[in-house]
TrEMBL record:
InterPro entries: Formiminotransferase_C, Formiminotransferase_C_sf, Formiminotransferase_cat, Formiminotransferase_N, Formiminotransferase_N_sf, FormiminoTrfase_cat_dom_sf, FTCD. Residues 3-179 form the Formiminotransferase N-terminal subdomain domain. This is glutamate formimidoyltransferase. Its EC number is 2.1.2.5. Keywords: Cytoplasm, Folate-binding, Histidine metabolism, Transferase. GO terms for molecular function: folic acid binding; glutamate formimidoyltransferase activity. Residues 180-294 form the Formiminotransferase C-terminal subdomain domain. It comes from Desulfosporosinus acidiphilus (strain DSM 22704 / JCM 16185 / SJ4). PANTHER family: FORMIMINOTRANSFERASE-CYCLODEAMINASE. The keyword Transferase applies. GO terms for biological process: L-histidine catabolic process to glutamate and formamide; L-histidine catabolic process to glutamate and formate. SMART domains: FTCD, FTCD_N. The keyword Transferase applies.
């Protein structure tokens, strides 16, 4: 069986689309790697990229992407609503077929070591690749963002796993291994950021909400709304519809409507089927009833 791994780099550029394309071209030039999806958000000033292929080829594509992003993105000039600490902010590896999580951890370590050694960019290993318990959670790794990390990187507790304890304009990178997650955002019909922060605090696991949810309140008031930006790290443990229903209930408490939602990047079919089954109140529905699955066998 051919081993397949997915890699989902997030780069800190979502406005200069010509720069995004230059960075994506580095992935496209690696034979055997498929660029599955990419999504740029101007407000977040961030692009989420998904690529897939055999481990060694994906590793090379990730390296080339990081090199180009470091060349093209200056964190001293970067502004956006999404937290970030690097030009390439995060690079997670996800097992897809024939891959173990341990093998993904090894890929993360190899990439991190090369980035630190050849590019002199500080690298923090996170999630399943974390070398310390306090570095498993990406939010903890990224605490203070680029501006705060300029000083804290010099302290013993923030010493990177690879690379120097000095930040250049490319910042630092979190490289890790994790199961699949879904980036799910819900938009509220209000410009009151405090409402968004309160709802995000209520839903995220670190503050007593759903253990499988990471959430932030994002200020999109120029568009007339506030966004609850979530990473759903286990959609079987916490389905998308459960997060949506919680947010709807909390928003109603504050007297504001839910005006839309979005999924950034790719999503497992089962996660969408669970939502459809819930909202359509289907009984005894099976994925075998999906026409395309029966015809094409996916």
């Amino acid at each position: 069986m051919v081993k397949i791994v997915e890699c989902i780099p997030n780069i800190s550029e979502g406005r200069r689309l010509e720069v995004v394309e230059e960075i994506l071209d580095e992935v496209r030039q690696v034979a055997g790697v498929t660029l599955l999806d990419y999504s740029s958000n101007a407000d977040h000033n961030r692009t989420v990229i998904s690529m897939i292929g055999e481990p060694e080829k994906v590793l090379e594509a990730a390296w080339r992407l990081i090199v180009k992003a470091a060349e093209k993105i200056d964190l001293d000039q970067h502004q956006g609503e999404h937290p970030r600490m690097g030009a390439t902010d995060v690079v997670p590896f996800v097992p897809v077929r024939g891959m173990t999580m341990d093998e993904c951890v090894e890929l993360a370590k190899r990439l991190g070591e090369r980035v630190g050694r050849e590019l002199s960019i500080p690298v923090y290993l996170y999630e399943k690749a974390a070398t310390r318990p306090e570095r498993r959670n990406l939010a903890d790794v990224r605490r203070g963002q680029y501006e705060g990390l300029k000083e804290s990187v010099k302290t013993p507790e923030r010493t990177p796993d690879f690379g120097p304890s000095v930040l250049g304009k490319a910042g630092a990178i979190a490289v890790g291994a994790r199961p699949p997650l879904v980036a799910f955002n819900v938009n509220l019909g209000t410009t009151n950021l405090e409402i968004g922060k309160a709802i995000a605090k209520g839903i995220r696991g670190s503050s007593g909400g759903f253990v499988n949810v990471k959430a932030l309140g994002i200020d999109l008031s120029e568009q007339g709304m506030i966004q609850i930006s979530m990473n759903m790290v286990d959609t079987q443990g916490t389905p998308l519809y459960r997060a949506m229903e919680f947010i709807k209930t909390e928003a109603a408490h504050f007297g504001v409507p839910v005006i839309g939602s979005e999924i950034v990047g790719l999503v497992p079919l089962d996660a969408m089927l669970d939502a459809a089954t819930y909202y359509l109140k289907l009984h005894d529905f099976s994925s075998e009833q999906i026409l395309e699955k029966r015809v094409f066998g996916f």
